[in-house]
Amino acid sequence: MASLAHENLDHDDDHEHYRNHHHHHHHANNLNGDSRTHLPKKPRLSFFTESEIATEFAHHDSDVARINNGSFGCCPASVLEAQKVWQHKFLAQPDDFYFNELKKGIHRSRSIIKEIINAEHVDEVSLVDNATTAAAVVLQQTSWAFSEGRFDKGDAIVMLHYAYGAVKKSIEAYVTRAGGYVIEVPLPFPVSSNDEIVTEFRKALEKGKANGRRVRLAVIDHVTSMPCVVIPIKELVKICREEGVDQVFVDAAHGIGCTAVDMKEIGADFYASNLHKWFFCPPSVAFLYCRKSPKLSELHHPVVSHEYGNGLAIESAWIGTRDYSPQLVVPSVLDFVNKFEGGLEGIKKRNHDAVVEMGEMLAKEWGTHLGCPPDMCASMIMIGLPACLGILTEKDTLKLRSHLREKFGVEVPIYFRAPRNSEDVTITGYARISYQVYNKVDDYNKFKDAINKLVSDGFTCSLLTT
Known about the structure:
CATH class of the largest domain: Alpha Beta
Radius of gyration: 23 Å
Oligomer: single chain
Largest sheet: 7 strands, mixed
């Protein structure tokens, strides 16, 4: 990944080509990261220690094993401090902040994201509140194309069955209502290979193109939420291109900081990822990448304000008076991740290795299995729960999750998978565990012991009242 272009940054920024200019320096070996990560000017003599990481996350509730980073993410203390500084700057002199600080600060954050995701140009990167907001931007454009007659009623949108609930609702609100025909790609679970996903996706596209219909948009998750699996998006985007799909939107709520995110390699028209889930920003902030094309001007923020018509990135940078600090702390987040060996890449690799190790430990302990092979997961993995717990409905998963939180101090989402036909497989409940830098083996042992206790007590979900 290229280093940050200096012209995109103010002189007080810490992101210079340290190694390129000072490779002879005797501290070079101790620098965090490699040629693909952003390096600070000053050499770091050491990386974060265990106790420093603990201090950064000391605000976490110590009574709870937080093995659910995937839902809400996390934000270290140093970034929260930086956020406070931005908030005070605004409150101290709002007019000066609005006219002289805000646009410049957001541009700097966008420039950093542009480098991390390997986009062609900073204009392709907008900052919005959430991946759900990003989905609204894209789907709103699709709905206008139907209502203005550029798309024919009955033209298709393809999405994965695993698509996030909020995005499914958005597709219903924007696309179905405008006359689009929605096709869900059914995906198996547990899943054993990328081939299974590719095969089902090809079938759905065939269905979409039947009767002379056009497939106008494919909405593809990068890392699905529930059940959780990394989708082979590069391959699916390539198939979309071959099959004449107009546009491809990758919903990567869990993308940046969780798995490999490279816009030039992926080749989608749109790619959205939260920055508060796996990239340590405070809630809530996401980026929406829109590949440069003549159609870029057709995209608008769903909240219309003074900047309407000035391009999505500028529209998004001011949608009225509100707290913009989550979008402004990206340089501080970069400082934080670069205090880890290998920077963001190093964090991702260690999180992946650790979540696989913890998942395998739990599956072995409970005599169950993982929801997918280790190479199909990123920093989250699914583990089958013992069948004797009696998880028979969606409601049971919520009851059991609450029970684990309230009685055992374990926070973990649970997925219900209805048995197919007359399968012998009796596992209908899966837990999704996350691993982030603040996690410890103790967190997963606490979960293991809680489930073991429930099993030995003869517990079943039917004993819990709603």
